[in-house]
Amino acid sequence: MQSENAVNRELSDNVLISLRKIIQAVDLNSKQLVKRVGLTGPQLVVLRYIQSVDEISVGQVAKNVSLSQGTLTGILERMEKRGLVARHKGLRDKRKVMVAITDIGEKLLRKAPPVMQENFLEKFNTLQDWEKTMILSALQRLVTILDAKALKAEPFLSASPIETGEAEKPARDLPFTS
User: Fold this and answer.
1) Would you kindly state where each structural domain of the chain is located, as residue ranges?
2) Whether the predicted pLDDT of 128 surpasses 90
3) pLDDT exceeds cutoff 50 at 171
4) CB 61 within 8 Å of CB 49
5) What separation in angstroms does the CA of 128 have from each of 18, 131, 133?
6) Which pTM was predicted?
7) Sign of CA dihedral 113, 117, 123, 125
8) Domain 4-145 top-level CATH class
9) 54 vs 60, higher pLDDT
10) Sign of torsion, CA 126 131 133 136?
11) Cα distance between residue 165 and residue 81, in whole Å
């Protein structure tokens, strides 16, 4: 019979292996998405959302895709440079900045695969409620164990820079970052 320490070590090793597999899956998916269409997961979500409406304010996009306005502004700047979206002053309210998808953005979306969270949600939603609750509870406990409560996170499965909740630092202007 294994000692209690050996059992605990095996359990903790298996948890760490599972976490590493999740991190690797997200990273691999993000790299494949960038390689295939030149967009990160958050950029793809933002572009798809903008496509679903005719024209919308930047603030409304931020609210509807669960991103801070500062993060969204960086994403939009990079997408605007590539000609995927266009921003302009609102017709009714000149203080608002409106955004719309361009023809180039539409064309890119036609060849874009589903984002990882869409596949996740499709499978997650087939689970029983008790399974969903157990997964959430276990993950929330891991967040606590890893002292990650203070980290700011959005509902995106993406290997992108972490925001710590401190004053936002400008994103590095690398191609295809979120």
Assistant:
1) 4-145
2) yes
3) no
4) yes
5) 21, 5, 9
6) 0.67
7) negative
8) mainly alpha
9) 60
10) negative
11) 27
What does the pLDDT look like over 91-107, one tens digit per residue?
Answer: 777 788 899 999 999 99
Structure tokens, 91: 């017709």
Cα–Cα distance measured from residue 5 to residue 104, given in angstroms and rounded to the nearest whole number: 58
Give the pair of three-digit tokens for residue 89: 């002053």
Segment holding 174, helix H or strand E:
none
**N-term to C-term CA, the chain:** 50
Q: For 63-96, give one letter per residue: b (16+ CB within 10 A) or e.
A: eebebeeebbbbbbebbeebebbbeeeeeeeeee
What single-letter amino acid sits at 6?
Answer: A
DSSP letters, 111-125, are: HPPPPHHHHHHHHHT
Q: Which DSSP state fits 164? A: -
Percent of the chain at pLDDT > 70 equals 85
Q: How far apart are CA 147 and CA 114, in angstroms?
A: 31
CB 105 within 8 A of CB 84: yes
From 119, 29, 40, select the one nearest 84 (Cα to Cα). Answer: 40
